[in-house]
From TrEMBL:
Residues 338-355, 364-378 have a biased composition (Pro residues). This is Competence protein CoiA. Residues 379-391 have a biased composition (Low complexity). Residues 302-399 are annotated as: Disordered. It comes from the Bacteria. Residues 320-330 have a biased composition (Polar residues).
Length: 399
């Protein structure tokens, strides 16, 4: 027996769970239709003195011609009812269900939407089934909900199963003073349609909610006098970097990164079902990305200088470079794709860099000749004097 029916008179879905008061019993001139098979339904169990709850039965008393669809629709509706009741249990929150698609063909494709309200905030919550319908159906749904509830946040809680969660690798990110690993997904056509229409796609993963931002992967273009190869401590190519789009993934995002937040933080705060915490993380990722991009370019220059510097002529410079390399290495080990905010703070070591860079520049050319023209008097004067004092090993190196 279907738990819902399409009402051809009001062009709305009747859901037994919401009550049937005011509706005529019986066939009612063929007013009620099965959402699964399209057959006529009879409303039974209504009226005074009835001992049973109201229910629909197919005309003729037989079972549904599309039993699998009927089962799916009822099961998905049941999940939504349970979620609605969970939301209703949150103090100060009211929750009702609606089926805003006012066409019989679309009515069975998505379960009802939950309209939750807290203070003056309205949130439309979707909990669709295993398979999302065509993008057009989703777009129509988002627009219908928006038409009924202007300004409402329209949240789609998807499932972490293969049909709705296509893993696209991990992303190491840095925020809140430490490194985090975010999962990324390849958005489907349906998910992109929801976002494009103004809805929000979230994933429910146990007691966590995964909230997406756009990940735009790109490759840094090496500039002159930069070396991007074989950075110590880097397992991946440092040229591979990314940009974020937020708070919603942009349409051209290659994949979506996911900020995990506790479901409780979305429901037990005044910011009811508003993913503020996730948006703050995205803001931090956005703020740090310019520093990360420029840090890598700077480091590529330092690596180049380090590798193109002969050791002999400038020992202090080499050690300075090494310390900076170590620093970069430590940062790289901790956080490869999103160097911490203190990475821009790695700029202070740069002051010594300009002189070092200048002194190194001549060194890029073949090593200086044995008799530099600059200290004409000092060198010849010192040389015989050294030879008398230094041990023979050092003497050899001075030649
Ligand atoms: Zn049917």
């Amino acid at each position: 027996m279907p738990a819902t029916a399409w009402d051809t008179a009001t062009r709305r879905v009747i859901w037994l769970g919401e009550g049937v008061s005011g509706l005529p019993a019986g066939l009612a001139d063929g007013r009620y239709e099965c959402r699964a098979c399209g057959g006529k339904l009879i409303l039974k169990g209504v009226g005074p003195g009835k001992k049973v709850s109201p229910y629909f039965s197919h005309q003729g008393g037989g079972s549904c011609a599309a039993p699998a669809e009927e089962t799916r629709i009822d099961a998905e509706t049941e999940v939504v009812i349970q979620l609605r009741d969970t939301i209703r249990a949150i103090p100060g929150v009211t929750a009702t269900t609606e089926v805003p698609d006012e066409s019989p063909g679309a009515s069975g494709q998505l379960p009802p939407v939950i309209i939750a309200q807290c203070d003056h905030v309205t949130v439309a919550i979707e909990r669709p089934g295993m398979v999302l319908p065509e993008p057009e159906v989703l777009t129509r749904r988002v627009r219908a909900v928006r038409g009924r509830h202007p300004g409402a946040l329209h949240v789609w809680f998807l499932r972490r199963d293969p049909a709705q969660f296509g893993p696209a690798g991990e992303l190491e990110v840095f925020y809140g003073g430490k490194t985090h690993v975010h999962q990324t997904v390849a958005p489907t056509e349906q998910q992109e349609a929801i976002v494009a229409a103004g809805g929000h796609v979230f994933w429910l993963d146990g007691k966590q909610v995964l909230i997406p931002y756009g990940v735009h992967d790109f490759v840094h273009t090496p500039r002159p006098e930069q070396d991007w190869t074989n950075w110590p401590g880097w397992k991946r190519d440092p040229r591979q970097d990314w940009r974020i789009s937020k708070p919603q993934p942009a349409a051209d995002a290659g994949r979506w990164g996911l900020v995990p937040i506790a479901l409780a933080t979305m429901t037990h705060t005044r910011a009811f079902f508003r993913p503020q915490q996730a948006y703050q993380v995205m803001d931090e990722l956005y703020r740090s990305q310019a520093g990360r991009h420029s840090w890598r370019h700077r480091h590529a220059r330092e690596v180049y200088q380090q590798r193109n510097t002969p050791r002999e002529p400038a020992p202090p410079v080499v050690s300075a470079d090494t310390s900076r390399a170590d620093q970069g290495q430590a940062q790289a080990a901790g956080e490869r794709t999103a160097p911490p905010p203190r990475e821009p703070a790695a700029a202070p070591p740069t002051p010594p860099a300009p002189p070092a860079g200048e002194s190194l520049r001549p060194a890029l050319v073949p090593p200086p000749p044995a008799y530099p023209p600059r200290p004409p008097s000092a060198a010849p004067a010192r040389r015989p004097w050294w030879r008398r004092i230094l041990p023979s090993g050092r003497r050899r190196s001075s030649r």
